[in-house]
Amino acid sequence: xxxxxxxxxxxxxxxxxxxxxxxxxxxxxxxxxxxxxxxxxxxxxxxxxxxxxxxxxxxxxxxxxxxxxxxxxxxxxxxxxxxxxxxxxxxxxxxxxxxxxxxxxxxxxxxxxxxxxxxxxxxxxxxxxxxxxxxxxxxxxxxxxxxxxxxxxxxxxxxxxxxxxxxxxxxxxxxxxxxxxxxxxxxxxxxxxxxxxxxxxxxxxxxxxxxxxxxxxxxxxxxxxxxxxxxxxxxxxxxxxxxxxxxxxxxxxxxxxxxxxxxxxxxxxxxxxxxxxxxxxxxxxxxxxxxxxxxxxxxxxxxxxxxxxxxxxxxxxxxxxxxx
Amino acid sequence: xxxxxxxxxxxxxxxxxxxxxxxxxxxxxxxxxxxxxxxxxxxxxxxxxxxxxxxxxxxxxxxxxxxxxxxxxxxxxxxxxxxxxxxxxxxxxxxxxxxxxxxxxxxxxxxxxxxxxxxxxxxxxxxxxxxxxxxxxxxxxxxxxxxxxxxxxxxxxxxxxxxxxxxxxxxxxxxxxxxxxxxxxxxxxxxxxxxxxxxxxxxxxxxxxxxxxxxxxxxxxxxxxxxxxxxxxxxxxxxxxxxxxxxxxxxxx
Amino acid sequence: xxxxxxxxxxxxxxxxxxxxxxxxxxxxxxxxxxxxxxxxxxxxxxxxxxxxxxxxxxxxxxxxxxxxxxxxxxxxxxxxxxxxxxxxxxxxxxxxxxxxxxxxxxxxxxxxxxxxxxxxxxxxxxxxxxxxxxxxxxxxxxxxxxxxxxxxxxxxxxxxxxxxxxxxxxxxxxxxxxxxxxxxxxxxxxxxxxxxxxxxxxxxxxxxxxxxxxxxxxxxxxxxxxxxxxxxxxxxxxxxxxxxxxxxxxxxxxxxxxxxxxxxxxxxxxxxxxxxxxxxxxxxx
Lengths: 324, 253, 285
Known about the structure:
The structure holds 3 protein chains of 3 kinds. Chain A is mostly helical. Chain A has helices at 3-23, 29-54, 62-78, 83-105, 110-130, 132-135, 150-177, 179-189, 191-196, 201-227, 232-235, 238-251, 258-273, 281-295, 308-316; strands spanning 141-142, 229-230. The model of chain C is unreliable at 280-285 (pLDDT under 50). Chain C has a two-stranded antiparallel ribbon with strand order 1-2. Chain C has helices spanning 2-30, 37-54, 59-80, 90-112, 135-157, 159-169, 171-176, 181-206, 214-228, 233-254, 259-273, and strands at 125-128, 131-134. In chain C, helix 2 packs across helix 9 and helix 10 (233-254) packs across helix 11. By secondary structure, chain C is an all-alpha fold. Chain C is globular, with a radius of gyration of 18 Å. Chain C has one domain. Chains in contact: A-B, A-C. Chains A and C meet through helix 5, helix 12 and helix 14 of A and helix 4, helix 9 and helix 11 of C.
């Protein structure tokens, strides 16, 4: 394990965060909105990367935890709790939900784990659709609006989301540098061998899942407060749950900077390239997914200048990555 | 042999459906001895190793290690307490470097910090002559070196018992000579070694004691020379040809 | 009352089996979760609608053509796109098929809009066990069930069918026996698409269909597949019947809005407690 590159990546990441924080006072309202969405997606990507990247479990539960965070925040605020406390409630709800879901689901592997997590998402969406006295059902829930002029409110949520992304980044850095991350990488490659060298596999998997779930829910909490209105199909979105892994793949799986780069790159594409094609929005997203899988298997982080030539050969070769 | 008993297996059984893969086996192992575990395919050798290391739960019986009942303990706890094993089919962390593979043993079973773990791992690599491969990915090693990697990883766990499941299968004779030398050196450190082996000349050279499993039960447990000349063992497993050859070489020596 | 729901559930079961069998086969044989499956159902339905309503052709001509077109589509998608990453980790194949799903669904939506459409073929109604049931519905379900049984027969008795089953059981051994794996993969995917198309046609006979429903169909395929066990036709039939009945019972006990959740909850329970499905057969490791 070479610690030097990860320290360098951490410094690069911190510099990016510092720059983003300083921009808060220069961006206009629209730019702040885009910035907030970049920060949120980066936080979700970093959270997913702990389970999907380091540990190698194809989790599709991101939106499940995100939605739980949205509703926990909304319900906490409707009980009169201040916004900061409501966010903590959201994170705690996510951690508890991850623990409850992880105990059965983390015994599953591969496809079954992926499906189990999707099923959890679907069930949660249906529950929020139908449990009307708690969630308002399909009609949705209104949250209190933040007082103040639009610019300062926008800046507040931008900085809050950026803070969460930083928290997720530092968490990832800590995981990357410690025995916890080392153990997760062992688990990704071979669980039996991991147990053989003395890793408490189930505890590690649960801890990673809880950590990831809490971060996703935290993001959901901030998001719900920001948009001041949530409904089941927005909170528990199937698209989000699959978009996030795609972004991480775009950036580079199981790396420190990959999720950040993937998130930023993705939002740039979303906002500036296909905002002009509203009707073909999801189709272009699909094309992007297909392109990432074929041409950037190691993500943007995996691009090496000398490999660009072989990238072209990949583009044109028939037998693309059909390893035995 | 008056060394202290390190591992005590009492009436251990394991059933798969109606089949008794391990049937009421009782064995004791002492500190620092090398014991050969032999028997035909399907005799229950690997199952026994799986039971001791906690990868399979026992259907009945008791396993005591270093005075402590470890029956039903999770594999990682057994590993941390000092019982290491290798797998018949080697299981490296393929995408990590050789050094990281070995470090995993000293980090988790040894309980060391990353820096100390790296130091121990380098020692183990030197011992198994893998130093020059430290930074290569484990997936790039040839079979003999992958077997050594398993050995190095187990050593890094600083075990008191090491169970080697066919570490010599598929190796050529000079590689086997190296492996045997290493195993002897490990035993000299006071580590108890249980070797599952199909190559009888390896068992004969390494082990002072041999346990023969047959249909899940202990057919014979005793000094290597005696066991190899026992008619029951010859009939069940070794075959007459081997017995006569062994007797001839024993007479020469 | 309960009897009615059970009869209805059994009838839906046949349709569900047809809906899921292709998905299950692809999963079992290729070890790929085909997120595109829901849109292939829609594609079948809309191809049929297009032929009947725009071109004015009779349904018995259009329906087989639509299913055939789906076969070609599935074969081509597997050969050209999915086969390139078929041995990659799950996350890759799953996201790739999801990407394809987004593209295909978006195109259908773009050309046909989100308006629910039905074939609107009226064959009258019959009285069965005290319920008035439209004949078109019975025909749709019977066709779906019969095609599923036909597939079962083909897998057991045709040479290609045996090859598909062999690949499902052990692809390395099958390759050693001289079976061309990519060919079998593509055929399996084609058959999966064919069955999805057939389910789509049957759906369009019974209900109005919209491109927005692809997720619902995919979800049902998931549930059925897990309930019945992977990669086998009897598994899909068992899963389909169980889901049909359970949804009926869920509707009766909790109201229609909970029917889907009941299915998913049952699926989660089965995944966790009986990973090889209710039928108990191990499909594919």
